[in-house]
Amino acid sequence: MAQIANIISGTLRCAAFAVSLCFVWAQATEASGFLYECDMDDPDQGLGWVSPKIAIVLPGDGSVTVVDALTLTFAEDPVLGRILRDNDARFIVKWTLKDVRADTGRSFANFDYRASIAKSTGRIELTAGPRTFDSGLRSVGTCRKRTE
Fold first, then answer.
1. Which residues on neighbouring strands pair with residue 40, listed in sequence order?
2. Which residues are paired to 36 by β-bridges?
3. pTM for this one?
């Protein structure tokens, strides 16, 4: 029974992600913005803290929004990020999920994410972890820049 509940929960999260992605994508394209649609190669290395698909939305007004299964699970909406670097070679953004709770029951006030995207290849390097930890989880993948 618990396995069925997990399957249903996962399916609902995927559907919610798809709907949210459509919403933020529509916002980005309205303002001459774009989004990075990122597929992580090894989300299992993130021990449940890295989504297999991440959308990083730049609506064209200098802001950035991130949406994935985890932002929808814990924040229930896309979250605002902060651009650390945006030059010809690299785009780096960070964001935080607040008040998250692991399946084990352990809670974290701030779970920080940092994504670095190489503009020439689309390779994303993601680090994630509780703010109080010295080291975090790492994952890599590929991003595609989308305007439509």
1. 141
2. 56, 145
3. 0.78
